[in-house]
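## retry 2 of 3
previous attempt timed out at serialization; input unchanged, resubmitting
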Amino acid sequence: MTNNTFANLPVSAQVTFFYYGDLAPAERFYGETLGFEKTFDKGWVKFFRLTETSFVGLVDESHGFHKTAEENSVMLSMETARLEDWYEQAKARGATFKSHPDFAGAGEKMLTSFMLRDPGGYTVEFFRFNRRD
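## retry succeeded, writing output
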């Protein structure tokens, strides 16, 4: 039997930080295109609420811990039961798609998803489990 001591230590929230040379396009993307609520704004760092306790943090690279990269290998992935609604909102608000969902073939796959490209080159995925094998 393994003693997992961390399982008993609470975590109250989670933030994923993305770094940008220019925050304005990213702020518009998360706030206007996706419609997330901005909950924190210190100018060089901004938080947008994804769930009650999870956030995406946008950071000006000139003030943050990391610098931007040519190729960003981090993906923000969010599970939602309302995948079709998110897809329609992203289309209507002019998001840049990396992939589109296959709603017709959803029953054959474990999950259905679509991916967007944010202004800093990060991948943003919305998905729904069709079954949990």
